[in-house]
């Protein structure tokens, strides 16, 4: 479903602040894979997701979605295939628009938009049905502005918007990091349910090693822009947090820059 071939990305290239954020990354992800991505600060986690989403051009390498080479495609063109949920609950929605208007925009992702009713009666029925599954009562609040919702409600809505039209790739960039622990658990359960029910191909960046172990069928660890661990299925399921830290030491031969972040 996704292939990255010898991808390299510099920031501030040629200056004293030059950073090699992705260092010859080769990665192949099958359809239906749920991949958790971990690493210390500056390891390249968000850069990896940004590269797939098309937020910047690569300096070297290729990115393919299915059999389509999207390396030179801008972000808006890749949006036909890629959905994304960010860390900040304020991103990914329009706060001044209503819940139903935000969902109507999500429903038209990747399609041409002409003149006509913004929200149709049949769409409202669909929206109520999908919102009811969240168990937050939002199906009764379709006309309400999204800016009135709590952070957890907005993040749940963003998850629904991202999957309303089934994406080929779902990118989750620390999407529970800004939430309180109780809300974060709810969104994490919702994430697992949505990915499994829709059989989505998903990459989820997290700082929480326990979440990285518990969710998905594959785990990759980044360090200094390189993939240093790639664990799948049974090997991943047998992991413990202590075991994963030990695997890092074995792979890299050095201590983590910030154990406290990875072990949060």
UniProtKB/TrEMBL annotation:
Keywords annotated in UniProt: ATP-binding, Cell membrane, Membrane, Nucleotide-binding, Transport
SMART domains given in the database record: AAA
Main localization, broad class: membrane
Pfam families: ABC_tran
Molecular function as annotated in GO: ATP binding; ATP hydrolysis activity
Keyword Cell membrane attached: yes
GO cellular component, one term: plasma membrane
Protein name: ATP-binding cassette domain-containing protein
Species lineage: Bacteria, Pseudomonadati, Pseudomonadota, Gammaproteobacteria, Chromatiales
């Amino acid at each position: 479903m996704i292939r990255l071939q010898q991808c390299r990305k510099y920031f501030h290239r040629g200056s004293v602040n030059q950073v090699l954020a992705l260092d010859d990354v080769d990665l192949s992800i099958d359809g239906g894979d749920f991949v958790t991505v971990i690493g210390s600060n500056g390891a390249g986690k968000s850069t990896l997701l940004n590269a797939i989403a098309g937020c910047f051009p690569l300096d070297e390498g290729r990115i393919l979605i299915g059999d389509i080479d999207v390396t030179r495609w801008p972000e808006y063109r890749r949006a036909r295939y890629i959905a994304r949920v960010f860390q900040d609950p304020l991103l990914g929605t329009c706060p001044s628009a209503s819940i139903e208007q935000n969902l109507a925009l999500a429903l038209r992702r990747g399609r041409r938009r002409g003149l006509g009713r913004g929200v149709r009666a049949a769409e409202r029925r669909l929206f109520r049905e999908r919102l009811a599954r969240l168990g937050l009562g939002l199906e009764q609040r379709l006309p309400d502005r999204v800016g009135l919702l709590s952070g957890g409600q907005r993040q749940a809505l963003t998850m629904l918007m991202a999957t309303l039209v089934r994406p080929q790739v779902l990118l989750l960039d620390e999407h529970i990091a800004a939430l309180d622990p109780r809300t974060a658990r709810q969104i994490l359960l919702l994430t697992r349910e949505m990915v499994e029910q829709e059989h989505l191909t998903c990459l989820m960046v997290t700082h929480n090693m326990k979440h990285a172990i518990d969710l998905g069928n594959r785990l990759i660890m980044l360090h200094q822009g390189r993939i240093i661990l790639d664990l799948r299925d049974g090997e991943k399921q047998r992991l413990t947090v202590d075991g994963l830290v030990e695997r890092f030491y074995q792979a890299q031969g050095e201590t983590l820059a910030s154990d406290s972040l990875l072990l949060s």
